[in-house]
Design brief:
- This protein is α/β, with parallel strands linked by helices.
- It has two domains: 5-372, Up-down Bundle (ABC transporter transmembrane region fold); 382-630, P-loop containing nucleotide triphosphate hydrolases (Rossmann fold, 3-Layer(aba) Sandwich).
- Helix content is 65%, strand content 10%.
- It contains 20 helices and twelve strands.
- The protein has helices at residues 5-53, 60-70, 75-108, 111-160, 163-166, 171-213, 215-236, 239-262, 264-269, 273-325, 331-372, 382-387, 437-444, 488-493, 501-510, 514-519, 537-551, 567-578, 593-596, 623-630, and strands at 397-405, 414-421, 426-431, 452-459, 462-465, 474-477, 486-487, 527-528, 555-559, 585-589, 601-606, 609-614.
- Strands 6-9-10-3-11-12 form a six-stranded mixed beta sheet, with helices on both faces.
- Helix 6 runs antiparallel to helix 7 (215-236).
- The structure holds adenosine-5'-triphosphate and magnesium ion.
- The site of magnesium ion has 4 residues, from helix 13.
Length: 632
């Protein structure tokens, strides 16, 4: 069938309107369904983020500089992403102008020119698709790489910073910062910043094109969009209270569930299942009612933005109806206007969501900066490592001289402690709970530093002040369960990563662990859970002792290491300690009299003072006598 001239125009116009309607329907649907809803939701999220986390942007410029420093090596990709985004914006505007020409040419009936323009349009569309795919791939790649790099850098700092300062942070807060905040900063550099630039280019180019085509529509668009956002934000501010309550209800619900799951044993043994379940229902009811309220306010806030957006389109349709019927304007101009208008609206809504996102990422960066500002441990023993490399199997003395320590100002915990532990000596440390026994170990490990006085390790008559790197001479069995999730073997290897299977077995035998390990389903390859779950407390303690035995260092410290063992097993392990081939200088902290039988000397910590209550010369003969005399 031949298409006549006029029909030809209508056919082309119809085809074009279909294509362009796909375009602007596509824009609109993104605009409404994703853009608007996300935009408002995001604004509220950011708002709540500020309220809940009390983000105060103290030094945005300094923080911004920090972000850039953290992103060195990735900034060139940010630049490329900006270029691609800018190019995409300009291509979009050019497509609108090309489509105007296409419709106008088609209506005039110029077939060759129409074909050329159709080809141009197809090329533009393909170029846009290719560029935006490249953009997404590059952005996702850079984001994950940068996030990992920031995470590693902060984690490295955490590993090497002062333990005391770090211990003030909640573990979940640290992991949130390492994961979420690192992600947010990476997202700002590889996504938000290029996106903001893209939006600005899109706004400028669309506005210029609109101004050229129809100044009145351009002015209407540039006024209506920001005004609507302003009113929507004004109304959205009412969300503050509801949002805060909603976040609190959510946090309560989450912590309730977390604690309940952690203490499920207590709930079961105290028959609290029903009450606990009812408690969860009450918290959920509150959360649901707040979510519904939030939904209503959100919908109203969105309606303002929808109203603004539709009114701009309505203005264009009025303009079209008026001018087309009067023959003043061309169809092509109408189609171009319909496409360009979203080039003005989208940047405003995009900016409304991207700017708070950027601000939130500055908040995230500040939280990370807080961690990096924790001072690193001071390495003042280069002397020890370079000038006097102490062999691993050497015998070392420990000396505390006039050591004073307090965790809080004016609350002195340890007062002027002075004592020496000779190489190869086994010393018992006793004292009531909370007196500061573990703190003495922390001082020896240089995890905390004395307010006054000095702590030395002595090798061949030379004294070396303890420091982080003198930890390499210490094997430590900490108080409490300190196992990692993983296999039995991987836990033992923490003591010595190069230990052979024979070494592992030897350490297991010395710590009375070998028997129970052999009975486990996969023996040394048996997987144990978080904090040694799947093992008894006593078994976990024995593995911790085996781990320390594997380390074979000149100093061995056991902090309540045998508290969960029966007397017989404990006696066996203590004998193993005495018989260790490398004869470590040993400090045993204990409340148990049986452990004291092994000691050459016993110190008692009382009211911040240390008393030597027994030495080899004055040591009572029997364990019972020692126990009775030490008044534990
Ligand atoms: N990180 C810390 N920050 C502030 N105070 C602390 C910290 N760790 C311990 N303390 C306080 O220091 C005191 C001594 O604690 P430490 O753990 O050394 O006692 P302990 O003698 O080992 O007790 P236990 O026998 O119960 O293990 C306690 O009063 C404790 O509350
Ligand atoms: Mg302790």
């Amino acid at each position: 069938m031949q298409i006549s001239g006029k029909n030809n125009h209508y056919f082309l116009l119809h085809s074009y309107l279909c294509i362009s309607s796909i375009f602007y329907y596509h824009n609109l649907s993104i605009f409404f369904d994703a853009g608007l809803k996300r935009c408002t939701a995001l604004l509220c999220d950011i708002l709540a983020l500020f309220l809940e986390r009390k983000i105060i942007l103290k030094k945005p410029i300094g923080t911004f500089r920090w972000i850039l420093t953290q992103s060195r090596g990735y900034l060139k990709y940010t630049f490329i992403l900006m270029l691609i985004g800018g190019l995409l914006s300009i291509l979009g505007v050019y497509r609108a102008i090309a489509s105007k020409k296409l419709v106008d040419t088609a209506i005039l009936g110029s077939k060759p020119q129409t074909t050329t323009l159709l080809i141009l349009l197809a090329i533009l569309i393909i170029a846009e698709i290719c560029l935006s795919s490249t953009n997404s791939i590059l952005s996702a790649r850079c984001r994950s790489k940068l996030s990992a790099s920031i995470q590693k850098r902060i984690y490295d700092h955490i590993l090497n910073c002062q333990w005391m300062e770090l211990s003030g942070y909640h573990s979940s807060s640290l992991s949130t910062r390492l994961c979420n905040d690192a992600d947010a900063v990476a997202n700002a550099v590889t996504n938000t910043m290029p996106h903001l630039f893209t939006l600005i280019v899109l706004l400028a180019s669309s506005f210029t094109a609109l101004l050229y085509l129809e100044p009145a529509v351009a002015l209407a668009a540039i006024i209506i969009s920001p005004v609507c956002i302003f009113f929507s934000k004004l109304y959205g501010s009412k969300l503050k209270g509801v949002y805060k309550d909603s976040q609190e209800a959510d946090a309560l619900c989450r912590s309730f569930l977390q604690e309940s799951v952690q203490n499920i044993l207590i709930l079961k043994t105290f028959c609290l299942e029903r009450e606990n379940y009812a408690g969860l229902s009450r918290l959920q009811d509150k959360k649901i009612s707040l979510a519904v309220k939030k939904g209503y306010i959100n919908t109203l806030s969105n309606t303002v933005i929808r109203l603004g957006s539709w009114s701009t389109f309505f203005i264009i349709f009025c303009w079209g109806a008026n001018n087309l019927s009067g023959g003043v304007a061309a169809f092509g101009t109408l189609t171009a206007l319909l496409q360009l208008i979203s080039g003005i609206q989208a940047p405003f809504y995009g900016l409304a969501s991207s700017v708070p996102e950027l601000v939130a990422s500055v908040g995230s960066a500040e939280r990370l900066m807080e961690l990096t500002s924790i001072p690193k441990e001071v390495e003042d023993n280069t002397d020890m490592e370079s000038c006097c490399p102490i062999p691993d199997n050497s015998l070392l003395d420990i000396e505390f001289r006039n050591v004073c320590f307090s965790y809080k100002k004016n609350e002195s915990l340890l007062k002027n402690l002075s004592f020496t532990v000779k190489a190869g000596e086994i010393v018992g440390l006793i004292g009531a709970s909370g007196e500061g026994k573990t703190t003495i170990v922390r001082l020896l490990l240089a995890l905390v530093t004395p307010d006054k006085g000095h702590i030395f390790i002595k090798y061949k008559g030379r004294k070396y002040q303890v420091s982080p790197s003198s930890r390499r001479f210490i094997s430590y069995v900490p108080q409490g369960n300190t196992l990692f999730s993983g296999t039995v073997k991987s836990n033992l290897l923490h003591g010595n990563l190069t230990a052979s299977d024979w070494d592992i077995h030897e350490a297991a035998v010395s710590s009375c662990s070998a028997d129970f390990i052999e009975q486990l389903k996969d023996k040394y390859e048996t997987v144990i859970g978080e904090k040694g779950s799947g093992l008894s407390e006593g078994q976990a303690q024995r593995l911790a002792i085996a781990r320390a035995f594997l380390r074979k260092k000149p100093i061995l410290v056991l902090d309540e290491a045998t508290s969960s063992l029966n007397t017989e097993t404990e006696a066996k392990i203590l004998r193993s300690i005495r018989d260790l081939k490398h004869k470590p200088t040993c400090i045993i902290i204990t409340h148990r009299p049986s452990a004291l039988a092994l000691c050459n000397r016993i110190f008692k910590l009382e009211k911040g003072m240390l008393y030597e209550i027994y030495s080899d010369n004055s040591m009572p003969e029997t364990v019972e006598e020692r126990y009775a005399s030490s008044c534990i």
